[in-house]
């Protein structure tokens, strides 16, 4: 029996591995050529203020178009870009695109950009962001930077010095995917983040009438507020999830229920459909978003 299974696994394993190697090579090539061939695009997903039901800001999420028009997921290409170092150029490009876009939005909207640990390695990030703030004219308080705990675990370069310098610029720092890593609590205690984003796995398991999930969410939100952080719930897909979270005084909601990541050209129509028209009249039309 064992021998038979062994042989079977072996037979299917080889072609799988070849597929994986070919796929990796393909993605790697797309990543390397992506900027030059205009294959990257930044999409924006709304964050909602649940007390007013209005859009508070957008998270920038990178997209890579494949030659056949399909899309390669960032969960697949970001790790590859991190490995081969392309993330340095790509990350700088995402920052520039996002900050430029946001500088044309109404002033009450922020933009949130994901940073990879490697972007802290060469010690140039603070200067880069300082330069972009000046160039785009974006108010620093309207820029939010999302990092995950892997940054704090790996300690590439002088991470805490760079985080301090970013905070001194007036930029908001956000801890992304909170609750899934190893020692989140220690990092929250040690570093001052402005925001906490609860990983969507917790929100996903809401609505299965699981009291344990509710207690975890209650507790994370309370902890965030006690430490002076705003708390975002990610991955809200259903009305039931939104309804439950409403009872918990989250500061921001994010998820397909409110809006998927969309290209810049769709932001103005989205904002108008979402009853924020009075705030935006004049402002959005002028800027040809
Ligand atoms: P993230 O920063 O946690 O971003 C949220 C992810 O959850 C996005 O996936 C978003 O599309 C997805 N999402 C949002 N709402 C829902 C929902 O209701 N249901 C479900 N199932 N998913 C939802 P995406 O765009 O595929 O990005 C995946 C990850 O790739 C991001 O996770 C982030 O870690 C990374 N990433 C994306 N763009 C960039 C970037 O420009 N730079 C870096 N370094 N990483 C990026
Ligand atoms: Mg994020
Ligand atoms: Mg996240
Ligand atoms: Mg995530």
Describe the structure.
- Residues 24-275 form the EAL domain.
- This is EAL domain-containing protein.
- 49% of the residues lie in helices and 18% in strands.
- The protein has 13 helices and 10 strands.
- Strands 1, 2, 3, 4, 5, 6, 7, 8, 9 and 10 form a 10-stranded mixed beta sheet that branches.
- Mean pLDDT is 89; it is low at 276-289.
- The site of ligand C2E has 24 residues, from strand 2, helix 2, helix 3 and strand 6.
Salient structural properties:
ten-stranded mixed sheet, disordered C terminus, 49% helix, alpha/beta, binds ligand C2E, 289 residues, 13 helices, EAL domain-containing protein, binds magnesium ion
Topology:
Elements: H1 2-34, E1 40-49, E2 54-65, E3 71-72, H2 74-84, H3 87-103, E4 110-114, H4 125-136, E5 143-147, H5 149-154, H6 159-169, E6 172-178, H7 184-190, E7 195-198, H8 200-204, H9 211-226, E8 230-233, H10 239-246, E9 252-253, E10 262-263, H11 267-273, H12 277-280, H13 283-286
Parallel strand pairs: 2-4, 4-5, 5-6, 6-7, 7-8, 8-9
Antiparallel strand pairs: 1-2, 1-10, 2-3
Helix pairs in contact: 1-2, 3-4, 4-6
Bound molecules: ligand C2E and magnesium ion (3 copies).
Structure summarized in a few sentences:
This protein is α/β, with parallel strands linked by helices. Helix content is 49%, strand content 18%. It is globular, with a radius of gyration of 21 Å.
Largest sheet: 10 strands, mixed
Q: SSE string, helix = H, strand = E? A: HEEEHHEHEHHEHEHHEHEEHHH
What distance separates the N and C termini? 64 Å
Strand content: 15-25%
Computed structural class = alpha/beta
Shape: globular
Helix content: 40-55%
Helix count, per DSSP? 13
> Which compounds are bound in this model?
ligand C2E, magnesium ion
Low-confidence stretches: 276-289
What is the residue-averaged pLDDT?
Answer: 89
Radius of gyration from CA coordinates: 21 Å
Total beta strand runs: 10
Keywords: Membrane, Transmembrane, Transmembrane helix
Domain EAL: 24-275
Protein name: EAL domain-containing protein
